Each structure stands twice: as C-alpha cells, then as structure tokens.
Amino acid sequence: MSGTYLGMPAFPAAAKEAVGNETLRANLRHATHTIRDKRAKAVAELDDWMLLREAGKRIKDHTLRHLDRYLVQLEESVTAAGGVVHWAADAAEANRIVAELVKATGESEVVKVKSMATQEIGLNEALEAEGISAYETDLAELIVQLGDDRPSHILVPAIHKNRGEIRDIFRDRMGAWGRAAPEGLSDTPGELAEAARLHLREKFLRAKVGVSGANFMVAETGTLVVFESEGNGRMCLTLPETLISVVGIEKVVPSWRDLEVFLQTLPRSSTAERMNPYTTMWTGTHDTDGPSTFHLVLLDNGRTATLADEVGRQALRCIRCSACLNVCPVYERAGGHAYGSVYPGPIGAILSPQLRGTGSEIDASLPYASSLCGACYEVCPVAIDIPEVLVHLRERVADQGGKGHRLEKAAMKAAGWVFDHPRVLAAGEKAASRTRRLHPSRLPGAGAWTNTRDLPKLPPEPFRDWWKKNRAQDRGKGARPAGSGTQGRDAHGPGVGGPNSDDRKDSGT
Amino acid sequence: MRAALFVTCVNDAVYPSTGIATVRLLERLGVEVDFPEAQSCCGQPQFNTGYRRETEPLVRRTARAFAGYDYVVTPSGSCAAMVRQHYPAFGDAAATAVAARTYELTEFLVDVVGVTDVGAYFPHTVTYHPSCHGLRMLGLGERPRRLLEAVRGLELRELPGADECCGFGGTFAVKNSDVSAAMGQDKVRNAVSTGAGVLCGADNSCLMHLGGIVSREDAPLRPVHLAEILASTEEEPWS
C-alpha cells in the first residue's frame, strides 16, 4: 500500500494521541453518530434487509469461489467491448502499467474519481515520480490532497477536518494546484462547495485522461459500475479521451441481476440513501460518446493470498460501504489515521494485515484494535464476521511470536494450566482473598489497567468455598444429583464484598 | 428441574455474591442447582487473544465438568457466548453437547423456566447496560429488560447509547488501554446522566471495568449484577 504509511507506530500508540485530542473526538463523535443513526433508519425501511444481506454474502462467496472463471469471462467481455485488460500482481506493477499508459497518451495530468484501489497502491505518488500530476476530484479527497494529508475514512476521507480547517486549506493551497479560492472565502458549506466546483471545473474540461476504480465489474457484459454522490465521477468517466480503471479482482460479480442486490444495500449502508445520486455504468468504448480508449487494470496486491485463507477470505466480500467504521466505538475514539492504512476501522483491521501481511508493527497490532463488541458484523451488508477474522488473525500474530507475544503465550499457558488444575486455582483464590486488605487499588507495572481504573476489591472467600460450606453437604461431593432445592439451609452467609464496596452483603438468609 | 451452575472464573474469584445470588434466585424458582466443582474457566481470554491451542484443555475440562446436565446456567453473557458459539468448532463431541445446553441466566429464566416476574423487590433507580456478547452473540434482546421491569420497587432509567460497547473487551482493556478507558468513561458518563443510583449489567467483567472507573472517578453509581437484583426480595433485600 501507500508508502506514506511505512513505519507507522503500532495502533495503541497512534490511538493514544487521538484519544487525547478533544477536537478530533468531538468531530468524529458527531459525524459517526449522525451517519450511524441515518443508516439505521434507511435500513429499517426495508422489510427484506436480512435477505438482501444474505443474498449479497452469497453472491460474493459464489464469485470468490469461482473467481478464476469470472475474471477470465470479464476479460473476454471487456475486450469484446473495445477495452484493454491488464493484470497487475502487486502495487508496483499496477503503478507501472498506469504510468506507461498515461505517458503513451503524451499527457502529464490526469483527473481522478475517488478510488480506494488507487489509494491502496499509492498511485498518485507513483505518477508524481514519473512527472504526472493526478488531481483528486472528489470533494473530500481534494481536501486531503490539498492539505497534504491522509484519508481517515473510506467514504468520508476528510472526516477528521472541520469547516474552518477546510476553508484554510482551500484559501492557502488551491492557488498552487490551479484556480485559487475566491477572495474572502467563508466556511459556509455553500461557499466551500462553490470554491471546489470552480477549481475542479477547469480540471474536468482540460483533462484528456481519467483514472478511476470501480465498485463492481459485471463479468457477463464487461460493464464497470461506479456509485457516487457529487457528479465528479460522471465528469471523469465521460469527458476524457482515455479512461484507465484500476480495480481489485474481488470486485467482479457474475451478472447484472446481482447488481440489483448491491444497488439497494450499498447506498443505504454507506450514505444512508435509498439510492445514490450518480451511478455510472460503462461497457468498453463507443465511437460517438465517452472515452475512445479504455484500459482496465485488474489488481491482485495480496488478494489471492487472502482468498487462500478459509476464515480470512470473507474480508474480500467487502463493498467498501463504511458502515462498520461509523458504528465502531474504537474507530470513533482512535480516528482513521491510527489504523495506518487507507482502510481504517474494523474492515481495515482485518483487511490490511491480510493484504500486507503481519510483518510490520502496525499490521501486527491491528487485529487487537477491537473489543470484539460485534457492532461491525451486525451492520455489515455482506455479513463479514469481522470479530471472527480478528480472532483468527490474532492467532496468526501470536504464532509468529513477535514482540511481547512469547511472554504472553507463556502467561496464557500458565493461566490455562492453573485453570485446568482447580485445586491450585482454589488455593490461589483463597490466598488472594486472605490477603485482600493488603491489595492496593493501583499497582505499579499494571498501569495499563490502573492508570484509569481501580482494581476490584477481592471478597473474603471465593464462591466455591461458600458453596462447600452452604450447599455441598446436600449434594454428595457437590457434583451430580439430588438436593431438595428448598430454601433456608444456608449457614448464615458470609459478608461477601462487591466490586466497590466491602460492605456489599449477599442477600443472605 | 435441575441445572448446573457455571459460575465463571471471574465470579468465583472476584464476585461470589453474583454466584450466591444466582443460586438463591434459581432455588427460589424451584430449580435444583448443582455446582460441578471441576469447572474453572471457559477459555475465552486465551481464545480471544489468539491462543487457541492453550484454550483446548479448558474447553475439554469445561465440557467434562458439565457433561450429563440438561441445563448449564451462567450469569455471564460473554462466557455463555464463548461456550455456545465457539465450543462446537473445537471438534470435541462433549464440548459440542455442552454448547447446545448452555444458557445465559436471563435466557434460562425467560425461555426455560418461563418467568419474567421472579418475585424480586429492589427499591432503587436502575439503568441497564446490555453487554455486547449477550446483546449480539446470544441475541438476548428484551429478556433482561422484561425481568427488570417486573421487579417491584425498581425504577428503570433509559441508558443513552446503551448498545455501545463499554470498552472492556478482555485483553483489549490492557492492550488498548487508552481507547478502552475512553469508552468506559463515556459509558459511565451516560449512566450518571440518567440519575440512576445503580448501574446494572449481566456480565461482571464489564462491570469490573466500569466499576473501576466509577471508583476512580468517585461517580455516584453502584455497579450491580442483574442476578443480585433479581435475587433481592422484601424479606431478604440486597444491600
């Protein structure tokens, strides 16, 4: 993926900074809660939502199972319709192909439709190194590009910026990239949008080459589909003479019928709309309309390896809707940059370590960037069981035995042994209970817990001791049968402490 | 009706009052309760942290400890979810059998015993946090609320953002302690905003995390497990 993410610190370190940034947290809280609530309403309108979700999952799984066949069919269809198909095994190859295609046109600038695949491979930076300027035309991507920033959300890449910050970026940076922002630009949405419109219009009318991704590719006809809201995509896909689309191989679907499902689930899941404002579909080239040259670059870049993993492959169902980001309590507090990838949030935490491997510090930390609350799985329109994949990837990271994991493994093994030997466990509990008055509520070295939280006070005796004194005699050895099930046989219950109160009594008889 | 209590390791060692309350509650409803002493930990901490092999002995132990019982009842949505959702994947027949017979306490009360009014008395204002594994993995739905609503004297206050995670998440609480604490602090703030004196939950691991924040911040809340509220009666009130 993009070189800008190399050397990122592990997730917890990056997240710590975001958690301490009150403005960022307020921005993210407001934005994610707004879209989260809207999505819930949009989804609730459909009685058959769960069926659509299941259908989407099955279409994707079926396609992935026969990916080889559908990709070849897609290549044939695109070629027959007048397009040229290129295969790129990794980011470097994809970048090289696109750069050569642009150079062959004699042009030195391209306009871009918002695309995750080109972000993933760092295409803009690669083109820049070849002397080609790539202009982002999606409003939020424009803000990110002008601000020399990184996207922090799949759908709303500038979610971490507020209006004032955007006004400053437009005022200070637009001039260097083309038409400058109007004098006296305010931070009202209308004025900001108009400034972007004027700036971009020049680029649309001048550009001879457009670069896009695609949300879907239909194998049977070779049709590519882009869903968007602003109309900038429609401009880039229709005005230039040459169109180059870089698309992940998992974006293929067998037929137009399959689109019916995603046309319903994607807009509702991402922007909470019944239908997105612009859906552009194109099939090869036409003599009288649209680009006269069309290239499709099919991108692997770790996808085949991901497909080989029986548990992890479900991540390839993703349709990049962002619903999991918007509902994630960790994303809401850590922000998108902490994930060290163009794919942040829960989906990023399972996608990046699979596409890039778990070798780097950031990638090895991502599977742990979740409390496993399951909210992401609940909202996913293609039913990716993100918690399942997270746990699966934690196994992979633990197995590779990197930093800290050898010690952790030993501790887990030791804890497992104690729990497998109840007598040792009981002795330990007893000892802990007996010495409970000596336990401090903050422990040196346990700062990860006690910096923000007190430790619970331990009770005078563990439950199993209470059981032995009060019930076990009725039950033989406490296992198996008999016992009358009546009340009032207790020896008077000991005062058993609760979490915060030593005097919290059991409601004893 | 006979049921085995799966008290969970956290309740055994740290919150015995929840185990005792569960025993008294079930006995009051005419359920004969056993406590197989061979039980220990379900293995969730190991499993969720990526140590599947280290989980296996605990899965086998738990499966053996509860073999032969028609009902295994646990006052923890999280541990119930571990057994029910993940045990079958370990390829151990006994573990798969136990998975199908394991119930979280509110499920057992509402679905098996068939009660929502358990005859409890708890004259306090309460707000309820539905822990994630109970809410999403088990689909407990309205069961805890229906049980609480039937408690005499209890005034239930709506918790804003109730279905958001409290930030405990097992080893997440220490591996990502800053995010975890931020989530917990928001949850406590929301609970305090209800004006309730009691923060009720059905998972003591979440309440341990939230209780730790409540205690550190001296917030006017007492975290109490749902079982203790349901066990409380006029004759033997919780205090």
Task: Explain how this protein is built.
The complex is a heterodimer of chains A (509) and B (239). Chain A has 23 helices and 10 strands. In chain A, the strands form 2 sheets. A 6-stranded parallel beta sheet of chain A has the order 1-10-7-4-2-3, sandwiched between helices. In chain A, strands 8-5-6-9 form a 4-stranded mixed beta sheet, with helices on both faces. Chain A is α/β, with parallel strands linked by helices and 509 residues long. Chain B folds into 2 domains: 2-113; 125-231, Rossmann fold, CATH 3.40.50. Chains A and B meet through helix 1, helix 15, helix 18, helix 19 and helix 20 of A and helix 1, helix 2, strand 2, helix 3 and helix 4 of B.
What are the key terms here?
heterodimer; A: 509 residues; alpha/beta; Rossmann fold; six-stranded parallel β-sheet; four-stranded mixed β-sheet; 23 helices; globular; disordered C terminus; B: 239 residues; 2 domains; four-stranded parallel β-sheet; 13 helices; 50% helix
Largest β sheet strand count, sense and barrel closure of chain B:
4 strands, parallel
**How would you write the strand order of the largest sheet of chain A?**
1-10-7-4-2-3
Tell me the helix content of chain A. 40-55%
Query: What's the N-to-C terminus distance of chain A?
Result: 65 Å
**Biggest sheet layout of chain A:** 6 strands, parallel
Could you tell me the mean pLDDT of chain A? 89
Roughly how many Å is the radius of gyration of chain B? 17 Å
Stretches with pLDDT under 50, minimum 5 residues of chain A: 477-509
CATH class of the domain at 64-304 in chain A: Alpha Beta
Helices and strands, with pairings:
The complex is a heterodimer of chains A (509) and B (239).
Chain A: H1 11-19, H2 22-44, H3 49-65, H4 67-80, E1 84-88, H5 91-105, E2 109-112, H6 116-120, H7 123-129, E3 133-136, H8 139-146, H9 163-177, H10 189-206, E4 209-212, E5 216-218, E6 223-228, H11 232-238, E7 242-248, E8 252-253, H12 256-270, E9 278-283, E10 293-299, H13 303-307, H14 323-327, H15 329-334, H16 345-355, H17 361-365, H18 375-379, H19 386-400, H20 405-419, H21 422-434, H22 447-450, H23 463-470
Parallel strand pairs in A: 1-10, 2-3, 2-4, 4-7, 5-8, 7-10
Antiparallel strand pairs in A: 5-6, 6-9
Helix pairs in contact in A: 2-12, 3-12, 9-10, 16-19
Chain B: E1 2-5, H1 9-13, H2 16-28, E2 32-34, H3 44-49, H4 52-65, E3 72-74, H5 77-86, H6 93-101, E4 102-104, H7 105-113, E5 125-129, H8 132-137, H9 143-149, E6 155-157, H10 172-175, H11 177-193, E7 198-201, H12 204-217, E8 222-225, H13 226-231
Parallel strand pairs in B: 1-2, 1-3, 3-4, 5-6, 5-7, 7-8
Helix pairs in contact in B: 4-6, 5-6, 11-12
